[in-house]
Amino acid sequence: MIATYSVAATVALVGSLFLGISAATSTAAKEPTATPTSKPAKAASSKPVDEPTEQPEDIEYAMGDVARFESDDGTRGKLKVSGPRLEDGAAYSYASTPANGHFVIFKMRPSCQSGSYQVWAEDFYVVTRGGERFDMDDGNAWDATSQEQISVETVNAGERKKGVLAFDLPSVHGKMYEPNGDGEPIATWAF
């Protein structure tokens, strides 16, 4: 239920705020800007990696903070990421257990003040403190909760949506990244 800017002939707008956000417009737009709350963070760029490498400038948020963005086409939106909730076992009777150790589940709350955009879950990723990168498709993350997880969510002007995004991780500490359409991080949430 969350994604990154890119629809038809659109260019990356906001990135994949906790699942990637894609602009649902037909005009090319420049990268949106987010409001920083702290210094840029470091993260690994491939998985697995021996040593973390520095990523291009990104914006770090605390869990529960709201990342705001605005694109050149006038689309304005917000993404609130909170949690995480940790699960070490199967969420329901026929679900799988974590393949990597722990299900780490985030609450996502995208909203749109003007325009329209899409949030793409597959754009978000986590880098553990050990420098390993994990995407939502790694391990058994889809079995992490009985709640419907965000996959691709269109958020129109005046709408607020909510959902969860889960990762199957070996560690309960790291950073969740939201990249722009070029894959460069535009927001991170430490947990």
Textual characterization of the structure:
The chain has 191 residues and is an all-beta fold. Helices cover 0% and strands 40% of the residues. The protein is built from no helices and 14 strands. The strands form three sheets. A five-stranded antiparallel β-sheet has the order 3-5-6-7-12, with no helix packed on it. The chain has a five-stranded mixed β-sheet with strand order 4-14-13-9-10, with no helix packed on it. A four-stranded antiparallel β-sheet has the order 1-2-8-11, with no helix packed on it. A hairpin with a 4-residue loop joins strand 9 (125-128) and strand 10. The two termini are 21 Å apart. Residues 1-57 have low confidence and may be disordered.
Concise synopsis of the structure shown:
The protein is 0% helix and 40% strand. It is mainly β and 191 residues long.
- End-to-end gap: 21 Å
Spatial arrangement of strands, main beta sheet? 3-5-6-7-12
SSE-based structural type? mainly beta
Chain-averaged pLDDT: 76
User: How would you characterize the largest beta sheet?
Assistant: 5 strands, antiparallel
Question: Could you name the ranges where pLDDT drops below 50 across 5 or more consecutive residues?
Answer: 1-57
The radius of gyration over CA amounts to 16 Å
**Shape estimate:** globular
Number of DSSP strand runs: 14
Give the SSE string.
Answer: EEEEEEEEEEEEEE
Q: How many helices?
A: 0
The portion of residues forming beta strands comes to: 35-45%
Q: Which percent bin holds the helix content? A: under 10%
